[in-house]
Each structure stands twice: as structure tokens, then as C-alpha cells.
Amino acid sequence: MIVKRYIVDNMQEAMVKIRYELGNDAVIVSQRKIRQKGFLGFFKPKKIEVTAAADDKDKKSSKHAVSSDIEKEIAELKNMVENLVKNNNKETKGTKKSQKIRIKENLLNNDVPEEIIENIIESIKKENGDGKINAKNLEKLLIKYTKELIKEDDKTDSRVQAFVGPTGVGKTTTVAKLASLYSLYKNKKVGLITIDTYRIGAVEQLKAYAEILNIPFGVIYSIKDIPNVLNQMKECDIILVDSTGRSSKNAMQIAETKKFIEEIKPDKISLVLSVTTKQRDIKSIVENYKMLDYNNIILTKLDETDIYGSILTAAYYSKKPISYITVGQNVPDDIEEANSDKLIKLVLGE
Ligand SMILES: Nc1nc2c(ncn2[C@@H]2O[C@H](COP(=O)(O)OP(=O)(O)OP(=O)(O)O)[C@@H](O)[C@H]2O)c(=O)[nH]1
Ligand SMILES: [Mg+2]
């Protein structure tokens, strides 16, 4: 049995974290209101402490654990697929059209664009040929093709990492969370840099985190500052570079950021995206930001929605792996390494 405690702002946030970390079978053991001292030393009233528990698969014998893992995986999608075929069983035997409609409905409910759904259905059809498809095969193929689309990042701790993306998605907060994780938990020497000298207060926002963590902080005002600022951080194992939020509709602005990024030459560029963004906007963001040659995606604000189709949309149109997800405003707690199996479950639903 795994028992885990969560300090959250509301129950929705708790449910997202619990579902993501402990799985759908987790149960809530207790919940209570507490006063919590936040990372920044602010007292934030009205936090909720939620304790949840779930079966610990690792504790079971390995043979049992392996088979129960498979069983669980199958069982988890079984419900959904049974729903796809249940009432229609007679008609659907051999008639792929009805199944197609059901898959479509389920994914459309989760706000997955039709183009992606058609793509998945086509892949399933191709693999299955013209033969009849049963519920078990269908669920396997559905997982298989979704898995091909949603990849997780290789999790290498690259030295210079830049964070780009639209305004207000949580870039600076994510940089602060990662800086804390690297310096507090991974014992790395971290340096923070911002090139966001455009938005009022942006420099101070990141500088405050650097001061709390007692780590070097640099500001790049113009391209000629870059060698100096990077040189000041030559002792650092990890350098995180925050950037100005840019509308994906403004190619000029993105090109401006590109000039800085090209000169900084990061080892890793993360596109930061909020899952609360409209589907059509996600498509244009991941496409227009390709100009910056980002190599992974960070998805933010998973705590703010129950509809997770945007995870699939971002992965599908970007063809990039997902490195982290963030699930709240708390620094440094509300960030997790992306796990494709968990993300797929969120997208496909129960
Ligand atoms: N609910 C929720 N809020 C978040 C999350 N990440 C960031 N935020 C909030 O989103 C707001 C914007 O965060 P910032 O980090 O300033 O966003 P940004 O992308 O740096 O914004 P600009 O620099 O203005 O483009 C803040 O109120 C954050 O606390 C998250 O995972 N969940
Ligand atoms: Mg910012």
C-alpha cells in the first residue's frame, strides 16, 4: 500500500495529482483544511491536506506483479472499449463504422481534434486489415497508436536549457520549480538567466527565486551581453534560461527570441504550453514555434482542467516528446517528470 499526502488549493488539484501519481484506483483516506507555509515564506491560508492510498504493485511477488500489471492495463481500457462496443454489439460485429463512431465520440468528448482521431482510426484499420475487430484488439491498438504519438522525454539533465512559449503559460514558474529541484534535490549548481526584459516585473520575478535559492542570476538585455552572462555562470552544472512570452501569431516576436536563442545555443529548448489552451491554438503554437527548434514540450496547468485532449494535440502536431507536466502554482512541488503511460490514460479516459 502506498500512502501519500498532498497539500493542495482545492480538491480538483488533489484529484489530478492523485490520479496522475497513484492511478485511478487510489482512494482518499482523509482530507482537512490546514494553514500552510509556502516555499516563498508567504502564509497561504485555506490549503487542503489530502491523504490518498493505493496498492503498491512492487510489494507483490514479481510474477504476480508483472501479470497483474498487464491485467490492470487491459482492465483500465476495457471499460472504455466495452462502452464502445456494448450496446451496439450486434451491429458492430464486423461493421467497423459503428466502432469508429464510438471511438470518435469518446475522443471528441476529451477535445481531441478530428484529424488526430481519423489518423488513429486509420492506423488501427491498417493494422487490422479488413478482418473483424474484437474489443480486446481494439483497446490494444488504441493504446499502441496513442503511445506512438505521446512520447516522454529522455530526461537528460542538459546543461543549458531554454524555456520558450506563449504569454502567461507558466514559463517563469516552471523555471523556478526546476531550479529548485536541481539545486535542492539533485545538488546541482544552478544558474538562472532571463532574456525577458520586455515585461515589467519579469526580471524581479525570476531574481526573487534566484535569491531564495541563493544561486547566480543574470539578465541578458541585448545579444552582446550573452557571452559575458554565460561566462559568469561557467561554474554552473545547469543553466536555466527564461524568455519573454510571445504570441504564436506574431512571427516577428518569435524571430526576435530566435536571435537570442541562436546566440545562447542551449543544449535543450522546451516549449512551455498550457493544457487549458484551445485545441486550434495549440496547433498553431506548436507549429509556429518550430522556428525556435524546440526539442521537447512542458505541459502546464493540468490542475485547471478535466479535459486532456490537448496533451495529444500538442504531441501530435509537434512530434516532440513531453518532458514535464505541472499541476499547480506551488514552487517547487507542483511539477513532475512526464510519464507517457499516465498521460495516455488521461487522454483516453477511463
Ligand atoms: N493552476 C496553475 N497555475 C500555474 C501553473 N504554472 C504557473 N501557473 C500560474 O500561471 C501564472 C503565470 O505564470 P508565469 O510563470 O508568470 O507565466 P509566464 O509564462 O512566465 O508568463 P509571461 O512571462 O508573462 O509570458 C501565475 O499565476 C502562475 O502561478 C500550473 O501548473 N497550474
Ligand atoms: Mg515569465
From TrEMBL:
GO cellular component: plasma membrane
InterPro entries named among the record's database cross-references: AAA+_ATPase, FlhF, FlhF__GTPase_dom, P-loop_NTPase, SRP54_GTPase_dom
Subcellular location: Cell membrane
Topology of this chain in the membrane: Peripheral membrane protein
AAA+ ATPase domain segment(s): 157-302
SMART domains reported in the protein's UniProt record: AAA (SM00382), SRP54 (SM00962)
Domain SRP54-type proteins GTP-binding: 158-349
Role of this protein: Necessary for flagellar biosynthesis. May be involved in translocation of the flagellum.
Name the UniProt record assigns to this protein: Flagellar biosynthesis protein FlhF
UniProt entry keywords in alphabetical sequence: Bacterial flagellum biogenesis, Bacterial flagellum protein export, Cell membrane, Cell projection, Cilium, Flagellum, GTP-binding, Membrane, Nucleotide-binding, Protein transport, Transport
Biological source species: Caloramator australicus RC3
GO MF entries: GTP binding; GTPase activity; signal recognition particle binding
Alphabetical list of Pfam families matching this protein: SRP54
Transmembrane feature ranges: none
PANTHER family with a match to the protein in the record: FLAGELLAR BIOSYNTHESIS PROTEIN FLHF, SIGNAL RECOGNITION PARTICLE RECEPTOR SUBUNIT ALPHA
Family, similarity comment: Belongs to the GTP-binding SRP family.
Gene Ontology terms describing biological process: bacterial-type flagellum organization; protein transport; SRP-dependent cotranslational protein targeting to membrane
